[in-house]
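Entry:
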Amino acid sequence: MVKFFGFLLALVLAGSAHADIPVYGFEIVRSYPHDPQAFTEGLFFKDGFLYESTGLEGHSTVRKVRLETGEVVQGINLPPELFGEGIVEWNGQIIGLTWQTQVGFVLKTDDFSFVKKFSYPGEGWGMTKNATELIQSDGTAELRFIDPATLKEKRRVKVTADGKPVTQLNELEWVEGEVYANIWQTDRIARIDPRTGKVLGWIDLTGILSPMFRGPQTDVLNGIAYDAATKRLFVTGKMWPKLFQIRLVKKK
């Protein structure tokens, strides 16, 4: 389960934003229940529901979740040998990744029935989309841009902050023309220009989950969803009992 290579570098880079890269704090607008057994890997919002993928071999799922209660209203288990990763919705289908098996899968959004599988090189971490492409992270400093029709890679963009590569890009979300990316093993989210790969800002979520809600299994921040219609931004973490709607507050 541990994707640890290079995370020390990510910690240094995420914590060393220069004055020309703005840093944002947060205000919690509202908190919601979240399944504390969900090892969150992918998250998106659609038609009033959250769609979430969870990881770990033998425990990986794709699920539709009622926002207000955290209730799983629909879901499937992935085969036990697969470690589920990011998901994205495209044209009535959910497209998902797995970690190290180089296998992706496609499900129908309405009933989660299996459509097909596909392959890709390297690791699968996070997924999101713009108007014409899927966007995939693989734990490196690169974002892959994928043709949604063929599921083949078209190009890559290297993510940098102050000219230095930012690795450990994990769960992704498209927010108002930017890619938001969890930086694995940190409490930060990078706001990325998808054209240049430059980090436009850091979101510092240190302390968002109160110590009173942390247990022995509580893992890292991971999971970003955006409701574009109402401009609501949601975040959570692996095995967190809470999901938060937040408002960004500029710190510097």
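Helices lie at 7-14.
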